[in-house]
């Protein structure tokens, strides 16, 4: 009898222990969430990006949350903490994915969002911005060379004499300076200058005989590490620091006019050339692969093609009178 009683007690204890252990074993929820597609800077996080799912009911808490505007950058963490409705059966779970935030929106059809007049004395050649103002340069005669300054709404601020026959103007965000390329017909030089003092019209030459066509309007890469120069279908990319040739692309489209053969615009992802007579812009990736055509409605001055803060700018030539700049939203967020 004692042995039977002991066996019964041991069986009951074992059963209790077994049941207790089974109650403590919980499952891990299966969280499904992939790296979201790239978003342009300025896009607020939404359910499009924060779309994690679980195989059991529960609640997600995201970090950063919906409505957050992320900084520009690659591989930024998005995290989710999942709390199940049945905590007795399922564990809390976490998952992290990465998202890239790009500088500009995807390339889209152009929409004209700004236009303003420019009085350059001769020809309004090119435009850039430091993020607070627009700056345009004139060309045609170095004795009346000037850089004009406008608000981002196109309101004239000031004009600064600059004794260079300019073809392009570029803003270098790494040193906060303006740079211009010059037309040197008398010496047949192809130079790039740094504007050392806008108020006094001071400048210094940083590159001599850099590009092939002395009419070329150069463009600065978005990271300010390279200068691009175009000449009748051939695009050359030079290191900004020392002017050494880094890349050559051939076979790019352009227009028949002299000015269309010598101008290029660039952004972080694309190269733009154009035929000013038909207002057709040719878009290439940075390897020279053709992407698409873009047709503009206004502006036909070949030298004027510029990319500024998500906008593609072209102009009507002032021709010693008043010119007009047209800015087309082609990659800006808003």
Explain this structure:
With 334 residues, the chain is mainly beta. It has one helix and 26 strands. The protein has one helix at residues 2-24, and strands at residues 31-32, 39-40, 53-54, 58-63, 73-84, 93-102, 111-118, 123-129, 133-139, 146-151, 156-161, 166-172, 177-184, 189-197, 202-207, 219-220, 226-231, 234-239, 245-249, 265-266, 270-275, 280-285, 290-295, 306-308, 311-316, 323-329. The strands form seven sheets. It has a four-stranded mixed β-sheet with strand order 2-6-5-4, with no helix packed on it. A hairpin with a 4-residue loop joins strand 14 and strand 15 (202-207). The longest helix is centred in the N-terminal third of the chain and has 23 residues, at 2-24. The chain starts with a helix and ends in a 5-residue tail after the last strand.
Structure summarized in a few sentences:
This protein is mostly beta strands and 334 residues long. Helices cover 7% and strands 46% of the residues. The chain has one helix and 26 strands.
Strand-helix topology:
Blueprint: H1 2-24, E1 31-32, E2 39-40, E3 53-54, E4 58-63, E5 73-84, E6 93-102, E7 111-118, E8 123-129, E9 133-139, E10 146-151, E11 156-161, E12 166-172, E13 177-184, E14 189-197, E15 202-207, E16 219-220, E17 226-231, E18 234-239, E19 245-249, E20 265-266, E21 270-275, E22 280-285, E23 290-295, E24 306-308, E25 311-316, E26 323-329
Parallel strand pairs: 2-6
Antiparallel strand pairs: 1-3, 4-5, 5-6, 7-26, 8-9, 9-10, 10-11, 12-13, 13-14, 14-15, 16-17, 17-18, 18-19, 20-21, 21-22, 22-23, 24-25, 25-26
């Amino acid at each position: 009898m004692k042995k039977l009683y002991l066996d019964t007690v041991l069986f009951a204890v074992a059963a209790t222990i077994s049941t207790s252990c089974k109650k403590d074993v919980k499952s891990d929820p299966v969280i499904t969430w992939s790296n979201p597609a790239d978003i342009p800077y300025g896009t607020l996080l939404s359910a499009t990006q924060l779309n994690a799912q679980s195989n059991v009911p529960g609640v997600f808490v995201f970090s950063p949350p919906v409505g957050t505007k992320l900084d520009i950058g690659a591989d930024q963490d998005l995290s989710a903490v999942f709390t199940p409705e049945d905590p007795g059966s399922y564990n809390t779970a976490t998952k992290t994915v990465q998202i890239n935030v790009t500088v500009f929106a995807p390339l889209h059809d152009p929409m004209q969002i700004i236009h303003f007049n420019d009085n350059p004395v001769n020809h309004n050649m090119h435009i850039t911005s430091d993020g607070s103002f627009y700056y345009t340069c004139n060309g045609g005669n170095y004795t009346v060379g000037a850089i004009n300054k406008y608000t981002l709404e196109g309101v004239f601020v000031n004009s600064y004499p600059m004794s260079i026959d300019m073809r392009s103007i570029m803003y270098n965000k790494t040193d906060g300076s303006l740079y211009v390329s010059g037309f040197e017909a008398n010496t047949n030089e192809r130079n790039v200058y740094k504007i050392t003092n806008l108020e006094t019209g001071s400048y210094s030459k940083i590159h001599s005989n850099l590009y092939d066509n002395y009419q070329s309007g150069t463009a600065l890469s978005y990271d300010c590490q390279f200068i691009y120069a175009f000449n009748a279908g051939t695009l050359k990319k030079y290191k900004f620091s020392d002017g050494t040739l880094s890349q050559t692309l051939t076979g790019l489209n352009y227009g028949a006019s002299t000015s269309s053969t010598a101008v290029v615009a660039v952004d972080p992802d694309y190269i733009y050339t154009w035929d000013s007579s038909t207002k057709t812009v040719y878009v290439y990736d940075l390897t020279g692969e053709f992407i698409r055509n873009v047709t503009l409605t206004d502006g036909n001055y070949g030298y004027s093609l510029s990319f500024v803060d998500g906008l593609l700018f072209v102009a009507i030539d002032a021709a010693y009178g008043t010119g007009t700049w047209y800015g087309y939203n082609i990659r800006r967020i808003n």
